[in-house]
Amino acid sequence: MNLFPPAEGAPPGFRYEEDFISREEEQQLIAHIRELPLQPFQFGAYEGKRRVVSFGSRYDYTRHAVKDALPPPDWTLSIIARVEQFGGPGSAPIRQVLCTEYEEGVGIGWHRDKAHYGDVFGLSLASECTFRFRRAAGKGWQRFHLDVEPRSLYMMSDESRHVWEHSIPPVASIRFSMTFRTLAAGN
Ligand SMILES: O=C(O)CCC(=O)C(=O)O
């Protein structure tokens, strides 16, 4: 599925492009991510099942603030530039690259990304997932979902980023993602 023009029901500000990278690039990125010191995602006293490494900046759940992280490694730089180009002139520079591994059966619960960050981009690697959106509507939820393919890129800005929540149900086979975030104004 290619969301140009936007698919009916897609949250405003959501963009999606398949085959953003080649299969060869995908294999190279997966090999790099597998070599990283991935650690279970920590949020305060809790630990998530997905394993992550942050570059550029990281969100500190104890201090509720964005902190510096190691600079993005060389192998991320050309992809960062392409993601920034995808974001277009209205989007700010990427200030965080979060590499995530979801083992089979691991997903991510409903959330909106921290307000300290601005636009959010996601590059999917190794396997597909269902990407779900919901927003409160009356006593229930307005919902949207799509199958996000490996090698695709999505972008969340505007309402899709700030009003709608998103989640990924447990994946059927191992998936990696690279999440690219700009900083919100004033951060
Ligand atoms: O893996 C993904 O594409 C989503 C990641 C995400 O929602 C997050 O890290 O907040």
Set down the secondary structure blueprint.
Layout: E1 14-17, H1 23-35, E2 39-43, E3 46-55, E4 57-60, E5 65-68, H2 74-87, E6 94-102, E7 108-111, E8 117-125, E9 129-137, E10 140-148, E11 153-156, H3 158-162, E12 165-168, E13 175-183
Antiparallel strand pairs: 1-11, 2-3, 3-6, 4-5, 6-13, 7-12, 8-11, 8-13, 9-10, 9-12
Q: Could you walk me through the main structural features you see in this protein, from its secondary elements to its overall organization?
A:
With 187 residues, this protein is of the alpha+beta class. It has a single domain, classed as Jelly Rolls (Sandwich), CATH 2.60.120. 17% of the residues lie in helices and 45% in strands. The protein is built from 3 helices and 13 strands. The protein has helices spanning 23-35, 74-87, 158-162, and strands spanning 14-17, 39-43, 46-55, 57-60, 65-68, 94-102, 108-111, 117-125, 129-137, 140-148, 153-156, 165-168, 175-183. The strands form 3 sheets. It has a 7-stranded antiparallel β-sheet with strand order 1-11-8-13-6-3-2. The longest helix is centred in the middle third of the chain and has 14 residues, at 74-87. It is globular and about 45 Å long. The N and C termini lie far apart (34 Å). 33% of the residues are buried. The mean pLDDT is 95. The site of 2-oxoglutaric acid has 9 residues, from strand 6, strand 12 and strand 13.
